[in-house]
Design goal:
The protein is α/β, with parallel strands linked by helices. About 20% of the residues lie in helices and about 30% in strands. It has helices at about 5-10, 20-25, 40-50, 60-65, 105-110, 145; strands at about 30-35, 55-60, 70-75, 90-95, 110-120, 150-160, 165-175. A seven-stranded mixed β-sheet has the order 3-2-1-4-5-7-6.
């Protein structure tokens, strides 16, 4: 059994976000991927199974333990402590179901030239259907789009999803590589 097949088998029941899967074609194999607030590692496993070199960061060290051997894992409080990846750059960054506004500029700065940002989290309105309901954890209308200013936005959605019921904003954005000749092509997913 290949390493990718073993990782995929181990991740049974931990399906990646449909948004992340939809845009994964923009992330080449053998590149570096950072999964922020990775939790149990559904996206760590997804990108590792696709041949990427993945780093997962979360404050819950116990949740990270099963990911050792699949990815580099870092247990850190990214809200209360210093950014543990200062000076490092990643070809792709994925963040789902997590919002810490002060971290957004750091994530943008951590994205390498030619890199892809995949971000999806809860938005205002979610308080009417469940948790999170605290405005500190809900994006305001258009807020995620504003946060990625300076990057090329390839896809963006802001709305309601039926199952499970939730309000979300999600973006896929890239940092164009000014040295790329001809310019990079960012193909849209086929439907």
């Amino acid at each position: 059994m290949t390493r990718g097949a073993m990782i995929a088998k181990h991740a049974a029941g931990l399906e990646p976000s449909p948004w992340v899967k939809r845009w994964s074609h923009l992330v080449a194999a053998n590149v570096t991927v950072l999964d922020v607030a990775c939790g149990s590692g559904r996206h760590v496993r997804w990108f590792a199974s696709r041949g990427c070199k993945v780093t997962g960061i979360d404050r819950d060290g116990a949740a990270l333990d099963p990911l050792r051997g699949i990815a580099e894992v870092i247990a850190a409080d990214i809200e209360g402590g210093p950014w543990p990846l200062a000076g490092r750059r990643f070809n792709a960054i994925v963040c789902t179901n997590y919002l810490w506004r002060p971290l957004l500029p750091t994530l943008i700065d951590t994205l390498s030239n030619g890199g892809v940002l995949l971000y999806e989290t809860f938005a205002v309105g979610n308080e009417t259907v469940g948790k999170p309901s605290n405005p500190a954890f809900l994006l305001r209308p258009g807020e995620l789009l504003e946060a990625v200013g300076g990057l090329r936005v390839i896809g963006y959605e802001d709305g309601f999803i039926e199952a499970p019921a939730r309000f979300v904003q999600r973006v896929v954005a890239v940092r164009d590589d000014p040295s790329a000749h001809p310019p990079q092509r960012w193909p849209l997913p086929t439907i």
